[in-house]
C-alpha cells in the first residue's frame, strides 16, 4: 500500500472528524480515557470512533514518513491518532536503535504537538521513558528552555517518568527554571509536577516548599499542595511555615 493510500485509509476511518463544522468540537469532547463523551457515543450527529482501535490496527503497517504526513494534518484527531500509533511503535519495539529513531522523530515534529491533549498523550511514554532509560536529561532541559510553551510542557510531562522512578532532582530544577513564567498555564503545570513528586515522597515536596514557597506563583502553590494533609495545606496557603 502506498504512503498516500495508507494515510487516506486512516483518514477515512476518521472521516467524520474532517467536516469543519463538526471537527472543531471534537478536541473538546473526544474521549481518550477521560472526558464527557466516549467511543460509540453520538455527538452532534457523529459517532465518536474507537480511536485506539484505529491506531492499533495501523501502527505496525504505517511507516514513519506516512506518520509524518498524518501528524501534519490540520485536523486535531488525525494528529492525536498519529501520536497514539507512535506510542504503540515505541512500546512494542525491543530495538534500542528504533526507539531512538522514534524519539528523534518526535523531537523533529514538536511544532505539530501544540495542544495539552497531544503532549500528555505521547510525551511521557516516549520522551520521558527514552530520557530516563538512556540517562539523558539534556533533551528535557533543552525543551524546558524553549520559547514554545508546549515544548516546556513536554519537558514537564517527560519528567513525570523520572518521578515514577523516584528521582526528583530534574523535577525540582525544571520547576525552578519556569517558576517565573508569565503564563498561568505553566504555573499549573509546574504545580502538577511538584504535586506528583509529593505523592511519591511528601518530604521531598515539603523540602522544596520550605525553600521556595515565597517565590511560587499562587496557582503553582495551590496545585503543588493539593494532596497534602489539610493542616499542612492551610499552613502553606497562609504562609505559616
Report on the structure:
The chain is mostly helical and about 240 residues long. Helix content is about 65%, strand content about 0%. It has 15 helices and 2 strands. It has a two-stranded antiparallel ribbon. Strand 1 and strand 2 form a beta hairpin. The chain is elongated, with a radius of gyration of 20 Å. The N and C termini lie far apart (about 65 Å). About 35% of the residues are buried.
Number of helices: 15
Placed side by side, the strands forming the largest sheet appear as 1-2
Tally of DSSP β-strands: 2
Which residues form runs of ≥5 with pLDDT under 50? 22-46
**Rg over alpha carbons:** 20 Å
Q: Give the SSE order as H and E letters.
A: HHHEEHHHHHHHHHHHH
Q: What profile does the largest beta sheet have?
A: 2 strands, antiparallel
Task: Please give the share of residues in helix.
Answer: 55-70%
Oligomer: single chain
Helix and strand content put the structural class at: mainly alpha
Could you list some keywords that capture this structure?
mainly alpha; two-stranded antiparallel sheet; elongated; 2 strands; 241 residues
SSE layout:
Layout: H1 3-13, H2 20-23, H3 26-29, E1 42-43, E2 46-47, H4 51-58, H5 64-71, H6 76-92, H7 96-108, H8 116-133, H9 138-144, H10 149-164, H11 169-177, H12 184-200, H13 202-212, H14 218-224, H15 230-237
Antiparallel strand pairs: 1-2
Quick take:
The protein has 241 residues and is mainly α. It is built from 15 helices and 2 strands.
Amino acid at each position: 500500500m502506498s504512503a498516500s493510500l495508507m494515510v487516506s485509509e486512516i483518514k477515512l476511518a476518521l472521516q467524520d472528524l474532517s467536516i469543519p463544522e463538526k471537527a472543531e468540537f471534537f478536541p473538546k469532547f473526544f474521549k481518550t480515557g477521560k472526558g464527557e463523551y466516549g467511543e460509540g457515543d453520538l455527538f452532534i450527529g457523529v459517532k465518536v470512533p474507537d480511536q485506539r482501535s484505529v491506531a492499533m490496527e495501523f501502527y505496525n503497517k504505517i511507516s514513519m514518513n506516512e506518520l509524518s504526513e498524518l501528524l501534519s494534518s490540520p485536523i486535531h484527531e488525525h494528529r492525536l491518532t498519529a501520536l497514539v500509533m507512535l506510542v504503540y511503535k515505541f512500546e512494542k519495539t525491543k530495538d534500542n536503535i528504533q526507539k531512538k529513531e522514534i524519539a528523534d522523530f518526535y523531537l523533529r515534529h514538536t511544532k505539530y504537538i501544540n495542544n495539552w491533549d497531544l503532549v500528555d498523550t505521547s510525551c511521557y511514554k516516549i520522551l520521558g521513558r527514552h530520557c530516563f532509560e538512556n540517562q539523558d536529561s539534556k533533551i528535557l532541559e533543552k525543551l524546558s528552555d524553549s520559547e514554545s510553551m508546549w515544548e516546556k510542557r513536554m519537558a514537564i510531562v517527560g519528567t513525570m517518568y523520572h518521578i515514577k522512578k523516584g528521582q526528583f532532582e530534574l523535577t525540582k530544577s525544571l520547576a525552578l527554571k519556569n517558576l517565573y513564567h508569565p503564563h498561568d498555564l505553566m504555573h499549573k503545570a509546574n504545580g502538577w509536577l511538584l504535586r506528583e513528586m509529593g505523592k511519591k515522597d511528601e518530604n521531598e515536596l515539603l523540602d522544596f516548599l520550605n525553600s521556595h514557597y515565597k517565590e511560587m506563583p499562587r496557582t503553582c502553590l495551590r496545585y503543588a499542595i493539593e494532596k497534602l494533609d489539610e493542616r499542612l495545606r492551610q499552613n502553606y496557603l497562609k504562609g505559616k511555615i
